């Protein structure tokens, strides 16, 4: 019986270590952890062609002074450089208890087209996507 209990406790510890130590998949949507008392939630945006687009991040709580999150853009049905100016990697400083925003330039063309989308991905130091914001690009001539 003692041997079985020892085996059971060793197996439970091994399983726990596996679950804790394996890299966990990041959530494609959700909050960014930005401190012990801070969450930041990226918000989707609707933008017009040929304009700067503000993608907002709502901060709840108090981020530590100098807290930044890394972000990049990713093609969707809208693709860089024809539909928007790509951001391969950048940092966004978070403000205290409010809304922080980043700007992405949405390009325009002479073609009348339906709404297109691309994403702003918020990533960790290893490049894993923690959260996303979807940007809908509208053509003013189509609306």
UniProtKB/TrEMBL annotation:
Signal peptide span: 1-28
Domain Calx-beta: 54-124
GO biological process, one term: cell communication
Origin superkingdom: Bacteria
Keyword annotations: Calcium, Repeat, Signal
A GO cellular component entry from the record: membrane
InterPro entries, per database record: CalX-like_sf, Calx_beta
Claim: Nucleotide-binding is one of the keywords in the record: no
The keyword Endoplasmic reticulum is assigned to this record: no
Name assigned to this protein: Calx-beta domain-containing protein
């Amino acid at each position: 019986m003692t041997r079985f209990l020892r085996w059971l406790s060793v197996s439970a510890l091994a399983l726990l270590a596996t679950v804790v130590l394996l890299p966990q998949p990041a959530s494609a949507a959700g909050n960014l952890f930005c401190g012990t008392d801070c969450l930041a939630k990226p918000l989707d945006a609707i933008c017009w062609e040929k304009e700067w687009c503000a993608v907002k991040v709502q901060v709840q709580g108090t981020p530590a002074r100098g807290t930044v999150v890394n972000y990049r853009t990713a093609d969707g049905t809208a693709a860089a450089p024809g539909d928007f100016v790509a951001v391969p990697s950048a940092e966004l400083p978070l403000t205290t208890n409010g809304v922080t925003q980043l700007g992405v330039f949405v390009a325009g063309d002479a073609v009348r087209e339906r709404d297109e989308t691309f994403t702003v991905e918020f990533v960790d130091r290893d490049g894993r996507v923690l959260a996303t914001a979807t940007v809908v690009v509208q053509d003013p001539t189509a609306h």
